[in-house]
Each structure stands twice: as C-alpha cells, then as structure tokens.
Amino acid sequence: MKKPSQRSLLGKLFGASAKGVAIEDSLLTGYAQAGGKDICVIGTCSGTYIGNAAALRLAAHVIDCIERHPRTPIVMLVDSAGQEPNRADEMLGLASYFGHLLSCLELARRKGHKLITIATGKAVGGAFICYGMFADRIYALDSASVGLMPIEAMSAVTKIPVPVLRKLSKTMPALEFGARPFALLGGVEDVWPTDSDLPAKLAAAIAGAAVDDNRAALGKKRGGRKLALDVRNRVLAESRR
C-alpha cells in the first residue's frame, strides 16, 4: 500500500481545514476541524525523532490551546521513530522534557480537552509513549507500524537471539509490530483503513471519547492480553481493603 504524503494525509483527515496545520521540521502544530467543530492538532511526521526542542514546541502548542481555545479536542498524530538518539539531549534531561509535555497534556485533560491519538506511520518507543499513548483513545491507520521496541533492540536487552524473537512474534502480539497486533493488545481502539472516510471516523472518535482506561479490557476481549485485566482488578481490590 502506497503511503500518502503528509499534506495529502492531513487533507484526508481534516479536509479543507488542513491548511490550518503547519509542518515545520517534521512537527505538526495548528488548528483544523472535525465534524464541523474546531480541534487542536499536534504531532510528528516523516518518521522523525523527538528531542528536547521538539517536546517543548509540542508542549507550547498544547498550552496555547488550553489558554486560547478552552475544551477544544486535541488530536495527536504520531509518525516518529522514537526519542532523539542524541547524547546532548539525554544529558540535558530528555525525560524531563517529555515529562513536561505529558504534564501539559494532563492539564489539558483536567481542563476538559478530549485527547485523541492517531498513529499515521511509525509509532515507536519513547516518542509514542511521551504523547501518543497518553490519549483518552488511540487509533491507527492500517498502514501504521505500531510497537514499543523493535525486535533487534529486544534482543540486545534480553540476550534472546533475533531469530527466536521473530518466531515468537508470530504468535505473540506484544512482539509483533503493526497496527492490528497492537489492537489485539488493547493498545489501539480501532484500526482505520487509509482509504476510508477518515473525517467521519475522527468525528465519531472525538464524540465518543471517554477518560476511562479500557485498554486492559479490550486486550482480554480480543485475546491479546488475557491476564492484565484480572491482575489489575485483583490489585485494586486488595488496595481497598
């Protein structure tokens, strides 16, 4: 499947209102419309990495939305290969910059902004965690590559040979990259065909967004995570005693 250009994809999602979204240094910031209503847009494109400067720019736009557009839904588009592999950023406190972005998004949530993520390309590792996975509901295009750690990186950490992990990935959704395996785990609410009516799907997603974390329940229902929900419920039950 040929992946549409970023500007073309924005048009598929937001129609004519996509002109309100700027693309600069592979970062997306701006305002558009979904279902005839205004939305705030932040995100990444072209499989870029997220470093300190990028996290600050995205956080600044979230703050702008909170201050100037109260309760406007925030749509987060993810196409990133992960956190910036930059020693300088790490030494300056990359995790703190990511934490700042997450804090801004949590403030937005508490101020009544709905948070929706759409994985449009690569949604990998720290970049996905630092803003994409923080949404109320997460969606993915069928062409997206979603996952938390490439098999080669897993092998380096666990010392399990790559061929063994590749074999295991065929039957374990947690090890397989892709939108549909991640949906089996409950990490993605729904997978959208790129050629479908994306504006209608986005409008429905925003209208139906809720702040409850339903990912463990979805994972159990779909068979990708069979124990997570029960373990969570047991822990919560014990904590109330």
Topology of helices and strands:
Blueprint: H1 6-14, E1 21-24, E2 27-34, E3 37-44, E4 47-50, H2 52-68, E5 74-83, H3 87-91, H4 94-110, E6 115-124, H5 125-130, E7 137-141, E8 145-147, H6 151-158, H7 162-169, H8 179-184, E9 190-192, H9 198-208, H10 215-222, H11 228-239
Parallel strand pairs: 3-5, 4-5, 5-6, 6-7, 6-8, 7-9
Antiparallel strand pairs: 1-2, 2-3
Helix pairs in contact: 2-4
Descriptive key words:
241 residues, alpha/beta, 2-enoyl-CoA Hydratase, Chain A, domain 1, 2 domains, 9-stranded mixed sheet, 9 strands
Can you put this structure into words, describing what you see?
This protein has about 240 residues and is α/β, with parallel strands linked by helices. The chain has two domains: about 200 residues, 2-enoyl-CoA Hydratase, Chain A, domain 1 (Alpha-Beta Complex); about 30 residues, no CATH class. The protein is built from eleven helices and nine strands. Strands 1, 2, 3, 4, 5, 6, 7, 8 and 9 form a nine-stranded mixed sheet that branches. A hairpin with a 2-residue loop joins strand 2 and strand 3. The chain is globular. It starts with 5 loop residues before the first helix and ends with a helix. The mean pLDDT is about 90.
